[in-house]
Design goal:
- The chain has three domains: 2-46; 59-140, Type II secretion system (T2SS), domain F (Receptor-associated Protein); 168-401, Receptor-associated Protein, CATH 1.20.81.30.
- 75% of the residues lie in helices and 5% in strands.
- It contains 17 helices and three strands.
- Strands 2-1-3 form a three-stranded antiparallel β-sheet, with helices on one face.
- Strand 1 and strand 2 (14-20) form a beta hairpin.
- The termini are far apart.
Length: 401
């Protein structure tokens, strides 16, 4: 790979040129060995605007990462070298982003870096949890088993996520229908009925006036309001608002029914992460730290960080987690039993399975509740809109009669 550089030579004179190297790190090392002070170094050609723009839409799906881990595990068992494995997978994958990343990892490995260090350079695909599992596999000489564990873990995560998404498809459709019908009513139906009321010259009830004002707002400002919501949502999603993540975490964990689902999902994730890492020789402190990072919720992340500090100070895991409202006492007691019997990994595996099953049942219960609630809400809302207009019209007709 060719890199263009701008450097200061040992005499202090600026020089430009190009160097052929496996990757940018090797290029930098080669230039520094010559006594150059590097001002800039970039791959020849760089990335065009179109490439950068298309990169915004590229991502690696969890299922692809599961398949990748399984393939690596199989190839390791077949005694294929690490470099050869990643070269083969880079050639065989259809995802352009993953193909690019695997190629860069191959170059780093060929340049002398360990697999875990090469993976660590791509946090958008390989999480701290993933990298530390591989690092543990390297230290124990069980890389194949580490990749197999990761594939199994991610399959469980993928199954729960897929089940949750599929279960919420119909409720999401009902919600979209709900707002679609309301919008059509406010834009097409209500204005015509409101004209009849205005022409009569009679006063209208306050609830009718609210509906008429809402209809005017949607007609005149609805499009701009929608644009504002989309832009604000994009900014919030990309940049975030200080403190908003913690606030939203507190709200969603306390929403009836939904809060239970979130809590059980996070507890399953923590148990599964700890079990997977401890089973593969990752130290307790590091396991707690990583479990906190990858759980996906600020509240539980803070709990795990605090637990890590207590364990570092000499407490057991069960003691560190006790007294937390978000951690059920039964979970703390089971972890304590696992610590006393030396079967902590088995207990964590049991907890992960239990909370995963509980989360799946919570999803099923929610779906059963959401469907009738949304249908009834849609009927009530449409009925209210019509009643708020038709009742005054009926009164006008009755007075004329």
């Amino acid at each position: 790979m060719l890199f263009n550089y701008k450097v200061l030579n040992p005499t202090g004179t600026e020089e430009t040129g190009s160097i052929d190297a496996i990757n940018v790190d090797v290029a930098i090392s080669s230039l520094q060995r010559r006594g150059f002070v590097i001002e800039s170094i970039t791959p020849e050609g760089g990335e065009g605007i179109s490439a950068k723009f298309s990169g915004l839409f590229e991502h690696v799906k969890l299922k692809e990462l599961v398949m990748l881990s399984n393939q690596i595990s199989i190839l390791f068992n077949s005694h294929v070298s690490v470099l050869r494995i990643f070269r083969l997978l880079a050639e065989g994958t259809e995802n352009p982003l993953l193909q690019k990343k695997l190629g860069e990892i191959s170059d780093d490995i060929q340049g002398g870096e360990s697999l875990s260090v090469a993976l660590e350079k791509h946090p958008d695909i390989f999480s701290d949890f993933y990298v530390n599992m591989i690092k543990s596999g390297e230290e124990s000489g069980k890389l194949s088993e580490a990749f197999a564990y990761l594939a199994s873990y991610m399959e469980r995560e993928s199954a729960l996520i897929t089940k949750t998404k599929n279960a919420l498809v119909y409720p999401a459709f009902v919600v979209c229908t709900f707002f679609g019908v309301l919008t059509l009513m406010l834009v097409l139906v209500i204005p015509k009925l409101a004209d009849v009321l205005k022409e009569s010259g009679q006063s209208v009830p306050f609830y009718t006036q609210i509906v008429m004002d809402l209809s005017d707002f949607v007609i005149h400002y609805g499009f701009f309001f929608l644009i504002f919501v989309v832009i604000a949502g994009a900014i919030f999603w990309k940049v975030g608002i200080p403190g908003a993540a913690n606030g939203w975490s507190s709200i969603k964990l306390n929403i009836p029914f939904f809060g239970t689902l979130y809590k059980k999902t996070y507890l399953s994730r923590i148990s599964d992460n700890l079990d997977t890492m401890l089973s593969n020789g990752v130290p307790m402190l590091r396991s707690i730290e990583i479990a906190g990072k990858v759980v996906g919720d600020p509240t539980y992340t803070a709990i795990m960080i605090e637990a890590g500090e207590k364990v570092k100070a000499g407490s057991s895991l069960s003691e560190a987690l006790s007294g937390k409202e978000e951690i059920p006492s039964i979970m703390v007691q089971m972890i304590k039993v696992g610590e006393e019997t030396g079967e902590l990994s088995t207990i964590l595996k049991t907890l992960a399975t239990f909370y995963k099953r509980e989360a799946e049942q919570a999803v099923d219960t929610l779906v059963g509740l959401i469907e009738p609630i949304m249908i009834v809400s849609l009927a009530v809302a449409v009925g209210f809109l019509l009643a708020s207009i038709l009742i005054p019209i009926y009164n006008i007709t009755a007075n004329i009669s």
